[in-house]
Amino acid sequence: MGDERTPDDTPDDGPGAEPDWARRKRLADVFGDVLPETTGDDRAPREPTGDRDDEWLQRQVPPHHG
Question: CA 27, CA 20: separation in Å to the nearest integer?
Answer without folding.
Answer: 11
